[in-house]
Write a structure and sequence with these properties.
Distance between the termini: 37 Å
Largest sheet: 8 strands, mixed
CATH architecture: 3-Layer(aba) Sandwich
Number of strands: 8
Structural class: alpha/beta
CATH topology: Rossmann fold
Helix content: 25-40%
CATH superfamily: Alpha/Beta hydrolase fold, catalytic domain
Strand order of the largest sheet: 1-2-4-3-5-6-7-8
Number of helices: 10
Order of helices and strands: HHEEEHEHEHEHHHEHEH
Strand content: 5-15%
Length: 356
């Protein structure tokens, strides 16, 4: 069946579609929400440009992970409505805090505080090798980043309950967080999670083994890229795999022009080995049963970056999770046009906002 037809879900049905996934969050009783992080005034800053202003109330700082990597983070209090807790927002590969300012404002207007950080090796966090290539030793290092952020920043500085929202690579890391410690977050919402890559000559496990072998022979820091990969620019907007929205596409271009140090280039063979291995594990038959908390995955029907069919397959196997495919959407769901973003936020409202 054609993917577009199979995947289409009318916007008005989203709330109904997720209504029966009602693993109710326990009621909490807390004093007025507050965020008590002590931030160094001479510490890290956020890039502020006319097309992407910093949301008011930001508190920015560094923290160190358990393995001593320095990561940049930012916190915001809610801006409207009753207190609903804190959304922990984690990004995809190459992304950075500033890219999500609009989405952070969307969350704050719904009554959520927001906590986010740059993964190791990207954004304003420590780079792991010289230059701009994407690198990580093990995919488990991203779990170290998230676990450290949860313990060092989220628990002491942000009001509960806690919800995890992850995109692409951050979606895969969030999925492993959900099975590693199901008490960290009440619910998990994933945008186009990186569960597999289509068009590879081997399975994810096979690709991981090849990349591991190349890393063993000292080639782990060499870049890998697809022929179709192109840097973001206005000239490259037509036919791009990320978003159909020109203004949101160009916002990322403007941010990198204003602060080139945020840029991350092609992934390395070592990163590919780590990521392919994690995707292979997520594709094992026994993996869905390990997911034991309420979880919702959204896939993009026109995704050319990650595998939509892998998201559908996992979504059908999980006992405490669901999935939906957004018709007409490209990979970056939070950066898509207003109509598609409206569907994404409606799904988030039905799954998190209305249950909090």
């Amino acid at each position: 069946m054609d993917r577009e037809r199979r995947a289409s879900i009318p916007t008005g049905m989203l709330a109904f579609f997720f209504h029966d996934l009602c693993f109710k969050t326990e009621a909490h009783s807390f004093p007025d929400p507050f965020m008590n992080a002590v931030v160094d005034p001479n510490g890290p800053k956020l890039v502020n440009i006319a097309s992407n202003p910093v949301p008011q109330g930001a508190r920015v700082g560094f923290f160190r992970t358990q393995d001593k990597v320095q990561l940049r983070y930012a916190l915001w209090p809610k801006s409207e409505g009753k207190h609903r807790g804190t959304i922990c927002l984690v990004q995809g590969r190459t992304e950075f805090i500033e890219k999500y300012f609009e989405t952070i404002e969307d969350f704050r207007r719904r009554g959520f505080s927001v906590a986010t950080f740059d993964w190791r090796g990207q954004g304003g966090s420590d780079r792991l090798i010289p230059g701009k290539l994407g690198y990580v030793d093990r995919f488990e290092d991203y779990w170290c980043d998230l676990r450290s952020f949860h313990g060092e920043i989220l628990l002491p500085d942000c009001p509960p309950p806690y919800y995890l929202v992850g995109h692409s690579m951050g979606g895969l890391a969030s999925l492993f967080a959900a099975i590693n410690d199901r008490l960290m977050f009440d619910r998990v919402f994933l945008s186009a999670p990186m569960l597999a890559l289509d068009g590879q000559p081997l399975s994810m496990q096979g690709m991981a083994r090849v990349c591991e072998a190349l890393s063993f022979f000292g080639l782990g820091r060499l870049p890998v890229s697809r022929g179709a990969d192109r840097p973001q620019s206005k000239a490259n907007f037509p036919g791009n795999p990320l978003t159909s929205d020109l203004n949101r596409y160009m916002r990322s271009v403007d941010l990198l022009r204003a602060q080139p140090s945020l840029e991350v280039g092609a992934p390395t063979i070592r990163w590919a080995a780590a990521a392919m291995g994690a995707m292979a594990e997520a594709g094992r038959d026994e993996f869905p049963a390990r997911v034991r908390i309420p979880l919702l995955m959204l896939a993009a029907a026109r995704d050319e970056v990650v595998s939509t069919s892998a998201i559908e397959h996992l979504g059908l196997q999980m006992r405490t999770g669901r999935h939906a495919v957004i018709a007409g959407a490209r990979h970056e769901l939070f950066m898509e046009n207003d109509m598609i973003r409206g569907q994404v936020l409606a799904a988030l409202d039905a799954f998190i906002t209305e249950q909090s």
